[in-house]
């Protein structure tokens, strides 16, 4: 009988040791100082890369749902951007893709708001031209709806 108790005590001690080691490692992982500046630097690089990947994206807020014909958001924006901003482009405006984002939820306040649109433009010069015109005029009126145009940045950059 004594041997069984000793084995159980030994097992209990090993579990306690493993629990202490696990707690220690979890605390180290949660401690940002443990990782040092390397992780911070890598995180900043990832944020920068994400922002660079999004540099040709533009977000449109407030464009009413069902304005596009046959769910063709791209053609809607091709006609809407020059009319809304009253600008002309040196080259024809070319969108690689455009789509609505943020799915609807059951909340009544969100149902009244149209989903935003994100568009990827082919030329960065046109992105700058659109954003400059959008900043000058502030919110734009489209059939009684306020439309906002903004650059598309990562969550971290938007928080700054």
UniProtKB/TrEMBL annotation:
This is Uncharacterized protein. It comes from Pleurodeles waltl. The lineage of its organism: Eukaryota, Metazoa, Chordata, Craniata, Vertebrata.
């Amino acid at each position: 009988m004594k041997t069984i108790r000793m084995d159980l005590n030994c097992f209990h001690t090993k579990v306690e040791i493993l629990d202490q080691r696990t707690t220690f490692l979890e605390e180290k992982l949660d401690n940002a100082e443990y990782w040092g500046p390397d992780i911070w630097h890598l995180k900043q690089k990832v944020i920068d890369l994400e922002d660079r990947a999004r540099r040709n994206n533009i977000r449109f807020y407030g464009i009413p749902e069902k304005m596009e014909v046959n769910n063709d958001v791209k053609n809607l924006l091709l006609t809407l951007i020059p009319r809304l901003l009253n600008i002309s482009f040196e080259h024809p405006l070319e969108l690689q893709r455009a789509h609505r984002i943020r799915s609807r939820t059951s909340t009544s306040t969100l149902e009244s708001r149209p989903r935003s649109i994100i568009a990827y433009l082919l030329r960065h010069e046109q992105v700058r031209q659109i954003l400059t015109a959008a900043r000058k005029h502030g919110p734009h009126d489209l059939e009684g709806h306020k439309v906002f145009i903004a650059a598309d940045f990562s969550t971290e950059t938007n928080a700054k």
